[in-house]
Design goal:
This protein is of the alpha+beta class and 184 residues long. It has a single domain, classed as Heat Shock Protein 90 (2-Layer Sandwich), CATH 3.30.565. Helix 1 runs parallel beside helix 4 and helix 4 runs antiparallel to helix 6.
Length: 184
């Protein structure tokens, strides 16, 4: 995967398959410490110790449609090649937390990619899941919660064209503002 947003999408799809009802996605870019990390935490079914020990093996997958699972192994390989690591914690019935870290300035660190469209895809594809998204760049932050949006919208779904259009702009503007402020 050429962009980290695609890894995030892959991991969140695993959370959705694990029947999570709440998924928290955090991204932290810390130029002063030269660190980048993202973390995904869910309240899905979790993994037992055997599955957890095997999840970084490319020849292990719980999917029946293919015999290999390259998402997490590729993520770990890339993180380690960029002076980082992948940490995975999981408990059956409680959920899973995955954190991937990188040296921010490492020449081989994949770019973050389009998180606004990644989040929009996740939200529209899983309207019943509560997503909490937080992206920090130094001291600045962009945060979004679908449960807060649901309170405002009442019964109007995210898939309503006007809501989708507003959401697309809001997410893109929030992400863009982080970098505009960083450049000034």
């Amino acid at each position: 995967m050429r962009e980290l947003s695609l890894h995030i999408l892959d991991i969140v799809q695993n959370s959705i398959a694990a029947e999570a009802s709440r998924i928290r996605i955090m991204i932290q870019e810390d130029p002063a410490a030269d660190r980048f990390w993202f973390e995904i935490q869910d309240n899905g079914c979790g993994m037992d110790e055997v599955t957890l020990a095997s999840v970084t093996d490319p020849f292990f997958t719980t999917r029946t449609t293919r015999r290999v699972g390259l998402g997490i192994p590729m993520l770990k390989f890339t993180a380690m090649a960029c002076q980082g690591n992948v940490e995975i914690e999981s408990e059956p019935g409680k959920g899973t937390r995955i954190k991937a870290s990188y040296q921010l300035s490492h020449i081989d660190r994949p770019p973050l990619g389009d998180m606004a469209n990644t989040m929009l895809t996740l939200i529209l594809g899983s309207e019943l899941i509560d997503f909490v998204y937080c992206h920090r760049l130094g001291q600045r932050a962009f945060e979004f919660s679908t449960s807060e949006m649901r309170e405002i919208l009442d019964d109007v779904p995210f898939s309503e064209p006007e809501v989708t259009s507003w959401l697309r702009g809001f997410l893109a503007e929030g992400e863009s503002a982080l970098y505009k402020e960083a450049d000034s």
